[in-house]
Amino acid sequence: MTKLRIAFFIDAIRAGAGTENQLLDLLGRLDPARYETYLYTLREPVPDTVPTRIPSRCDCLHLGRLRSFKALKVFWRLVRALRRERIDIAMLYFVDSQIFVPPAAFLARRTVCVVNRRDMGYWYTPRLLRVLRWVNRLVDYFLVNAAAVKKLVADKEHFPAERIKVIYNALATRAPVEGKPLTRGDLSLPENVPIVVLVANLRPVKRVDRFIEMAAQVAEKRLDVRFVILGAGELRETLARQAVDLGLGDRVLFAGSVPDVAPYLDLFDVGVLTSESEGLSNTLIEYSYHGVPAVAFDTGGNSEVVDEGVSGFLVPEGDLAAMADKVLELLGDAHTRKRMGQAGRARVETLFSPDQRRADFEEFFLSVTSARKRAARFDQE
Q1: One domain, residues 239 and 215
Q2: Which CATH number does the domain housing residue 52 bear?
Q3: Could you give the number of structural domains in the chain?
Q4: pLDDT above 90: residue 342
Q5: Are residues 318 and 188 in the same domain?
Q6: What is the pTM of this model?
């Protein structure tokens, strides 16, 4: 059997980031007997710990700025590499790969170019959209992780909807945690109080400030509730000051970044997501799998994870009062929390299975390469 040769391109591999975790999980699941995989980073070398986890060749292009003489030299080196390695499919993550790689794949002639879009384009600008619409003429397909993202790409980037395929994120699987189970006491949290959690990097797009505002509204009506934020980032000090200014004091715990959120989620009662731009949220998938009912804004692909009124609640974008009301409703009803938690786990196991995602990707790879071969034969005739 001739192996399919697939090259994956991404700016860098950042520990704990959602897109990177999804990519590494996919690479680890593709059968090395059927696929030859290559992982290219544009700017930062792949961390030493990654190659031991995936059966891929890893390389860094050391690209620098897109508009530079160095980038031109890297470009022609990439064209030669795509030809030399006979790459069948180039899978592109993030905007710089989308701009830089398609012309190289076009010149390599045999490479199918696929852009992976996994967010709602919060970074779009009019100038950048013009660039993307031009370069997308060299792109064969888009893969997106939610129907909402498909509509966005078709509407904003003017890409044909029939060449955009939805493949959902998968629940990240991990080895069982060894040793003593984590307890609330390990986090210096009281045992018999309700706890609301947010899992998010402390970056502007995640809008953790809105979580803290919502927490203040909840805290006005429930004096016993505590709030936990799992994540790290440049806004840590700013957000901590905001919590103090709103009178939350030690009722908000900034737990920082953790290597595995699973043992933590088992400790909490309600999960919240306050970001303003989500494709398909890995956080909501994690909440549901661990039986934590979620309250989120009805934006992006959130409605494709949360079954409104069944596994959680969706409220209008930016309506913090409505979000606080739903959090309070869940905190006051243990039966509803349990019912929604069970429904959420069942939904995740059905829609977001790692095996199903691998099968969807393999079907896609086969279909696009078969289509390219048929087109090549037609051209020769």
Answers
A1: yes
A2: 3.40.50.2000
A3: 2
A4: yes
A5: yes
A6: 0.88
Looking at the structure, do residues 347 and 358 belong to the same domain, yes or no? no
| Same domain? 70 vs 210 | no
Assess whether 193 and 297 both reside in one domain. Answer: yes
Does residue 130 register a pLDDT over 70?
yes
The pLDDT tens digits of the residues spanning 84-124 come to 999 999 999 999 999 999 999 999 988 999 999 999 998 99
Nearest to 286 by CA among 22, 13, 14, 12: 22
221 and 162 part of one domain:
no
Distances (CA, A) of 64 to 100, 204, 321, 327: 12, 24, 45, 45
In the predicted model, is pLDDT for residue 245 greater than 90?
yes
pLDDT at 298 over 60: yes
Whether 259 maps to a domain, the answer reads yes
What's the chain look like in SS3?
CCCEEEEEEECCCCCCCHHHHHHHHHHHHCCCCCEEEEEEECCCCCCCCCCCCCCEEEEECCCCCCCCHHHHHHHHHHHHHHHHCCCCEEEEECHHHHHHHHHHHHHHCCCEEEEEECCCCCCCCHHHHHHHHHHHHHCCEEEECCHHHHHHHHHHCCCCHHHEEECCCCCCCCCCCCCCCCCHHHHCCCCCCCEEEEECCCCHHHCHHHHHHHHHHHHHHCCCCEEEEEECCCCHHHHHHHHHHCCCHHHEEEEECCCCCHHHHCCCCEEEECCCCCCCCHHHHHHHHCCCCEEEECCCCHHHHCCECCCEEEECCCCHHHHHHHHHHHHCCHHHHHHHHHHHHHHHHHHCCHHHHHHHHHHHHHHHHHHHHHHHHHHHC
Looking at residue 16, its pLDDT comes to: 66
The residue range of the domain holding 312 is: 184-351
Residue 177 inside a domain? The answer is no
76 plus 147 within the same structural domain: yes
User: What percent of the chain has pLDDT above 90?
Assistant: 74
Residue 378 has pLDDT above 60, yes or no: no
264, 198 in Cβ contact below 8 A?
no
- Within-domain flag for 178: no
Are 87 and 36 in the same domain? yes
Query: Does residue 19 sit within a domain?
Result: yes
CA 75 vs CA 65, 72, 102, 127, 326: distances in Å: 12, 5, 10, 22, 51
How much of the chain, in percent, has pLDDT values that exceed 70? 94
